[in-house]
Amino acid sequence: VDQVELAAIEQAQALFKTDYHVNVQPYSGSPANLAVYTALLEPGDHAMAMSLDHGGHLTHGAPVSFTSKVYNFVQYGVNKETELIDYDQVREMALQHKPKLIVCGTTAYSALVDYAAFSRIAKEVGALLMVDMSHVAGLIAGGVHPSPFGIADVVTTTTHKTLRGPRAGMIFCRPEFAKAIDKAIMPGLQGGPHLNTIAAMAIAFIEAQQPSFRQYAKQILTNAKQLAYSLQQEGFRLVANGTDTHLFLVDLRSTKYLGQEAATVLEDINIVCNKNMIPFDENKPTNPSGLRMGTPAVTTRGMKEKEMEQLAAIIGAALRNERSVEELRAAVATLTKKFRIPLHF
């Protein structure tokens, strides 16, 4: 089992072209993030991260998260006009609160994150920088998204999402933080590693180093841009006017549905996405104003730009009640029949 774990570590370093220390034992992204906080912060320390309702993650100090009960998180967000991160505001907040740790990384933000800008702010206030790359790890591995390595002090990630591996987590860090982070994972937070998952991670990292994975990552972005554009042509407003990543948010306030209702309508015709808050949302998280959509799964099935146009047309018809549920289900079935789920028999 030691050989399996070492293989996963070596393949992770090769995949992301880094000599950072790697811990492949976290069960998922949330435990990975908590381990970093445990290692680098004391209870009550100040930290900064992106607000959940502006695109951050629960474990980035959201009020309902355990992380906010242990650490003193200050939340930054996006500019109301551009719906993009306001780095001047982030700097002002950092200068005011003097956090020990700044976290960047998103779960529902469609623009690129400027890791170098965050690094400059962190250095100015004497903070450490942690990048949570869970959503874009596969895009980074595929060479189509900027890399945080060499910039951040610590990088956390899941290994599913765009990386297309098993559901697990991983922590990369500069050597000086290795001992504290390893202790935070075991015995601090976990009783032992899931070696079956770590073996699968090693295989996933090898697969992600193949030329076909680079093409997959490139197609994810192409599909996301095409689906976003096609939905705009269908009359939907997108947060931040589109996407530079694998996902985007659809603003539903001009339609008859809110997020929960719209997600249900689409699930009824076998299109699965999730309700999501949009920046400055006046509706509740249980039925917010947006939908979050992404393209990794449909790209894995082999769909390309033409299919994104067809998907947008089906989504538009569904949310405008222009065709019956039976008709739309049939349209989805016709499309998916041509693009089987890999290894689906």
Features:
345 residues, alpha/beta
Structure notes:
The protein is globular. With 345 residues, it is α/β, with parallel strands linked by helices. It contains 13 helices and eleven strands. It has helices spanning 2-16, 29-40, 66-70, 87-97, 115-125, 137-141, 178-189, 195-207, 211-233, 259-268, 296-300, 305-319, 325-337; strands at residues 21-23, 46-50, 72-76, 101-104, 128-132, 154-158, 169-173, 237-238, 247-251, 274-276, 290-294. The strands form two sheets. A seven-stranded mixed sheet has the order 1-7-6-5-4-2-3, sandwiched between helices. Strands 8-9-11-10 form a four-stranded antiparallel sheet, covered by helices on one side.
Present the secondary structure layout.
Layout: H1 2-16, E1 21-23, H2 29-40, E2 46-50, H3 66-70, E3 72-76, H4 87-97, E4 101-104, H5 115-125, E5 128-132, H6 137-141, E6 154-158, E7 169-173, H7 178-189, H8 195-207, H9 211-233, E8 237-238, E9 247-251, H10 259-268, E10 274-276, E11 290-294, H11 296-300, H12 305-319, H13 325-337
Parallel strand pairs: 2-3, 2-4, 4-5, 5-6
Antiparallel strand pairs: 1-7, 6-7, 8-9, 9-11, 10-11
Brief characterization of the structure:
The protein has helices spanning 2-16, 29-40, 66-70, 87-97, 115-125, 137-141, 178-189, 195-207, 211-233, 259-268, 296-300, 305-319, 325-337; strands at 21-23, 46-50, 72-76, 101-104, 128-132, 154-158, 169-173, 237-238, 247-251, 274-276, 290-294. It has 345 residues and is of the alpha/beta class.
